[in-house]
Amino acid sequence: MESSFMLMVHELPYLTNDVPGLGGVVKSQPSDFVVEEIPLYDASGEGTHVYFHIEKTSMTTMEAVHRVSRALGRRTYDIGYAGLKDSDAVTSQWFSLEHVDSDQVKELNLSRINVLSVSRHHNKIKLGHLSGNRFTIRIREVDVDRIVEVRLILETLSSQGVPNFFGPQRFGMRGDTWEIGRAVLRGDLNEALAVMLGRPGPFDYGPVRRARELYDQGDYQAAAGAWPYPFRNERRVCAALARSRGRPGPAFGAADKQVRRLYLSAYQSQLFNQVVARRVQSLDKVLAGDLAWIHGKGAVFLVEDAAREQPRCTAFEISPSGPLFGSRMSMPTGEPGEWESSLLTAEEMTADDWCVVGKQKVRGGRRPLRFQPHDVAADVGQDDTGPYIELRFFLESGCYATTLLREICKTTVEPAPATDDCAE
Question: Which top CATH class is 177-258?
Fold first, then answer.
């Protein structure tokens, strides 16, 4: 499992290889992809934090955060949110802001952002404070007579589980945010900045391509001016490079703290995907040495007798887990442990390298190799645009709808958004 053979997100294997892909087009219009965030808890109605439920159309979460914070005269950091949502979609989610007038929030008048309701609570919403997301997705330009095959795939995914791959949102528009994280982990900030700001590729065009070219030429001030909205971090880092005469440390430190965390998280996710890919055809099997994930509890235990624990796995009470490397992560033993160790060896690092990166502690943990979709349904419909197959399902926090969709379509169902580097 050498780094040079690392599978990219578009190369990951399918569980349902025996059923041909549906193909089709997703997100031909925003209303074809509707996401409703289900909060982890209800607002109490009292407290210093104003909770407001927004619906946004064709906009990333971070763009919505910036627009709301500007309108209210607050820092973007002050806005709390539970997860990052798709851009080419109609999505609803909860934001929070402390010490603000509720009426001021209710009266927000922003294009493509509607405030649906306002309440109060005693704490800030933070990443992960959500139960999950409910999806309604329409696939167009398909043979609707294949609805039987679609339902067959959904039955398989509901019983065996969906491979819990991190989707393209995790890795940015160019699919390379994990490379930035790897460079940071290795202490090579020059490499991290080169991937972040330079080396234009096929996904770069117009002002973005020009900004990357200017960075590669060493004209950091011009590059800072060339980055378009909403590439705020890129502009900020290039400006810091110009001020510091190319010193990478102060420049990288000018990026939002949350964005810097996302780069490391993307690298964690890339390594996790390699483990899922290796076990994709046996996700409903536990092995001796596995750290089995207990669904509903978020805890793991060491599997000593695989035959004894297998019935629980078949019933979807437990699942094998994979690594999110960091200080809080435990290593499995036996064959699963050997696979994870070999992955680190191929990356020329150890588990200890993940504990602290610079001044930043990387916590890590375990993550199930599969997830179970709930309330699954598939139907045929038609509107003014034409016929479609509509999917409806609920996914718990941390699970990607695109991972489920790729099993049905067997194609790349969407590009990753430019600024939302991860989902829940």
Answer: mainly alpha
